[in-house]
Amino acid sequence: MQNSLFDSSEILSVERRVRELHDIIRRADYAYYNEAQPFISDKEYDDFFHELQTIEKQYPQFLFSDSPTQRVGGEPLKEFVTVVHEIPMLSLSNTYSFGEIEEFHRRVSEGLEGHIVEYVSELKYDGIAISLRYVNGVFVRAITRGDGEKGDDITQNVKTIRSLPLTITPPTINGVTVDDFEVRGEIFMMKEDFIKINREREEKGEKLYANPRNLAAGTLKMLDSREVARRPLHIACYYLYTKQTELVSHQHNISILETMGFPIGYANQCCVSLQDIFSFINYWHTHRESLPFFIDGIVIKVNALSQQRELGFVARSPRWAIAYKYEAAKETTVLKDITFQVGRTGVVTPVAELEPVVVAGSTISRATLHNNDFITALDIRIGDTVYVEKGGDVIPKVSGFIPEKRPENSSQFIFTATCPCPIKSTLVRPEGEANYYCDHSECPWQLKRRLTHFASRDAMNIEGLGEKVVDRFVELSLLRSIADIYDLHLHKNTVFPTLERWGEKSTVNLLAAIEESKKQPFSKVLFSLGIRFVGEGVAKILTRYFHTIDQLKNATVEQLIQVPEIGERIAQSVIEHLNDESEWTIIERMKANGVRFETVESDMATLNTTLQGKTFVLTGELVSMTRNQAGDEIAQRGGKVSGSVSKKTHYLVAGENAGSKLTKAQELGVTILTEQEFLLLLAE
Ligand code: IVH
Description:
By secondary structure, the chain is α+β, with helices and mostly antiparallel strands. It folds into 6 domains: 14-72, Helix Hairpins; 84-325, 2-Layer Sandwich (D-amino Acid Aminotransferase, Chain A, domain 1), CATH 3.30.470; 332-405, CATH 2.40.50.140; 444-517, DNA polymerase, domain 1 (Orthogonal Bundle), CATH 1.10.150.20; 522-603, Orthogonal Bundle (DNA polymerase, domain 1); 615-683, BRCT domain (Rossmann fold, 3-Layer(aba) Sandwich), CATH 3.40.50. The protein is 36% helix and 20% strand. The longest helix has 24 residues, at 11-34. Bound molecules: 2-(butylsulfanyl)adenosine.
């Protein structure tokens, strides 16, 4: 495995290299996305990927439909082509009661004339059903369920799902090589990614997705697969079908899928009695909260396919399966009050203050009410008994009230006209927006949020400057703006020693963290400023095109909207913020104190190249860091991590219990480093 550009004169070797790159990238994707055990660094992965893209551009005859480069999307489509399903995609009958599962079991047993039946219980993923076709080992088509008879061809979008294999080795079943089959599964989004994407949309002032399912559905409907590639979609496969041979059981099919490298469902269990099924349902009812994705129930299927065939279908559902759905967890409680929260950009959000209530295992006493339109639409009033739900949404929500329990003297809720802070400035609602804003530059509530945002981990990462400390320092007038953070050292020997519950160590640690934050790159600094609509992603893009804060300040709307993804609203907001006199003073003060307001040149200057050109192989367990962290450290110094030992390997880092790689390195005479020696090398 070599990582260099090809020799263009040798067509044969080009094709060989293309195949080799497919293989490396495919294995790297599988290790990263399906096993969470990457064997090459991000940098090395990018290099391979880029090499493949370069070859494909020069030799289009070697651009195959199953190339990993196709995962990053292609030319946008005008519309999706509708395709008829070879076997209709039916739905399952649903139930919410154990009684109906008993009924289901009775019907199944009757249909099988009393023969013993074994079931498989699985998680019911709350996502989008998809049908995938593989021919001659290659993924050829993905079709949505549509109306069950025909759906949309969304192959290009589905190719972006990294955990899905684009090529497989056709399995041998009953002695037959099965090279034409269909797989079905559910495409979904992780809760964590859903929150992140919505947060970014909120920062850009875009409409939020209601839940991960809607987000996954909205993503798959995009005509531009390059956009889809930026959204981390996942898939769980739960069905295999082929005409080429007779398949035996559902469990066996799942293990065939797994062997081929398909991501299969997280938990599936063989159940030989109703009791087994009920235990599985109960277990996941209480544990589903801890899953990183949403499930909306459990699917119970007859395991033997001969029995499935015998049972057949009724109307539009199979007789051999049933879905037990969990009710969206919903409780009622009293809405004690509606308070207001001021965000860092001045947005004023109404918050429901609730009589604490336990919903799906967590105590809820507050829930966001989003904005005035939301309250008006629900017509909820203080004193109402309201429903609090936790279902397909990550954040609990108030979804209505019980009219009979409304207190007689209640009156319609009136949104505040002034900021809840002591300044009480009049709120403004920009045209076309649902939010009200406080735009007073000295609003202490806004200031507190700005400061906590500025110091947060994703921003300037100043440990020790959390919400409580910020509140305290603002009350003490130690912090009147974010620029004051970099003057806190002036109080080292005066104010700090007099503070209660604040030791010398707190001062030392805080000041060190503040000093450290000066190393944060320009993109982080820009994000930290808390400019309306400038989230982490937007800040990164902006700093890629504008290398200093002065360039950004002097840019015109026309120049800014030339930048991909930057619209007029963001452009206006950036210009307004940077040209505001008091904001600019804050920036100038921080600049003078060494905060980085420029990019590249300074970033390049600090680039460490001590391991430039060196290839490492990591093996065994490291004590001081994970292998991933070690890989990052190497990459930061210009080195590479490879998955296997060859003559080209410069160093093998051998942790505890190192195995065959160590032996191979010894045979090839590769320099072997203990963890200690490796740490010394990093420190050079
Ligand atoms: S089996 C013939 N298994 O739930 C039925 N479906 O209401 C084949 N779903 O359309 C479906 N997780 O979109 C099956 N483990 C699972 C599932 C699952 C989610 C979805 C699927 C299906 C719907 C049925």
